[in-house]
Amino acid sequence: MAVTNDPVRLAQADLESIIERALDEARARGASQAEAAVSQDTGLSVGVRLGEVETLEHQRDRSMGITVYFGQRKGSASTADFSLEAVSATVAKACSIARFTAEDSCAGLADLELMARAPQSLDLSHPWNVTAERAIEIAKACEAAALQFDSRINNSEGASLGTHQGLHVYGNTHGFVGGYPTTTHTVSCVVLAGTGEDMQRDYWYTSSRDWHELQDGEAVGRESARRTIARLGPRKISTRRAPVLFVPELARGLIGHFVAAIRGSSQYRQASFLLNSAGQQVFPAGFTISERPHIPKAMGSAPFDEEGVATRDRELIVDGVLEGYILSSYSARKLGLTSTGNAGGAHNLIVAPTLPGGAAAMLSRLGTGLLLTELMGQGINPVTGDYSRGAAGFWVENGEIQYPVAEITIAGNLRAMFTGISAVGDDIDIRGGTRVGSILVQEMTIAGD
């Protein structure tokens, strides 16, 4: 098959052919091992503000990356040109680089026996053939619904719609070649309300692999407006220690800090506040985190990782105890362990709820404390776990929201915050690769006046 540099969308068989050609070229140049990945992404993004189109973009990206190994010397190169000459030149460049790199005893392909043998289809591709005109209509209707929600909504940062298709194929000299298509669709809106110094903003969005499952655009607009209005008239509060309830979209970030700490790279570099914590109590008894890579249509699903290693169900936290790390083949070798199929990251982390009854039950359990709805800044030390971030939300008393609060800082240490989790709600947010409800941390420092 002749692959040209024509921008038309190629089929998976075409991308597999490019990989095979690159691997053959690497073998011919004396590489002991090689791996290649080819991807193409197309998409449409529109943005409107105050009823006018601000952005209209058609994306079309493509790339091929090749990594070769000469014994334990490694070289990598990439190109966006799929022509025969460009592929050959890219492999030659990778081989040239490898000859000048230092030997690394952990370098090389993932182990042959870990390769995915019969990758299953996970229903991750649902193309949305929406026209630019229709996309603009949806975004305008989304923003209009927000602006009409309440007379106090008086400005907008805009509404947007994005739809993207990806096709990624990976292969190596173990004989593995595999790929799968994906889609991601999103509608979002950000509006402002208030006057003078009391100007507030908030947002909402919907995202899914399948465009049929997106929340209605006008509903997204109304929710962004409702959230903005609720923040009007914020008060400052005095510095204190109190419980903090992270809403689901922020609880996901809290779990993200845990994931970063147990990555193999953080462990072997000794740059983690959870260093050598496997087998230790990291969360309270009854707390569970599972990895489920094969959920159909889920954002974090994948039949194999970026090295062709088969993904599998596993338990990361059982009854609060850390069962193991998140490992690629390289980080696993550095630690004397085996790859967990996580080259490129974790796949669908599921945090099991501990308290039924939704958001209302979590507010009741909070009692008196802070309902956290926004975080600002990146005040996190991954080595010590020290945590300090600007925040906003609502003060809650006797399980009832009393008033919005702003211009505060919350602080603690992630290790203590994790062990201090007293409840996880069943108000689960499924829009990302971590599925978690709201999380109640029993006590943190809240710095205000």
Description:
- By secondary structure, the protein is α+β, with helices and mostly antiparallel strands.
- The protein folds into two domains: 12-230, PmbA/TldD fold (2-Layer Sandwich); 240-253 and 353-447, no CATH class.
- The chain has helices spanning 12-28, 84-98, 132-147, 217-230, 248-262, 264-268, 329-335, 358-366, 414-419, and strands spanning 33-49, 52-70, 73-79, 153-172, 177-195, 198-208, 240-246, 289-291, 314-318, 321-322, 349-351, 369-376, 386-397, 400-413, 421-424, 434-435, 439-447.
- Strands 3-2-1-4-5-6 form a six-stranded antiparallel beta sheet.
- Helix 1 (12-28) crosses helix 2 (84-98) and helix 3 runs parallel beside helix 4.
- 41% of the residues are buried.
Secondary-structure map with pairings?
Blueprint: H1 12-28, E1 33-49, E2 52-70, E3 73-79, H2 84-98, H3 132-147, E4 153-172, E5 177-195, E6 198-208, H4 217-230, E7 240-246, H5 248-262, H6 264-268, E8 289-291, E9 314-318, E10 321-322, H7 329-335, E11 349-351, H8 358-366, E12 369-376, E13 386-397, E14 400-413, H9 414-419, E15 421-424, E16 434-435, E17 439-447
Parallel strand pairs: 7-12, 11-16
Antiparallel strand pairs: 1-2, 1-4, 2-3, 4-5, 5-6, 7-17, 8-9, 8-11, 9-10, 12-13, 13-14, 14-17, 15-17
Helix pairs in contact: 1-2, 3-4
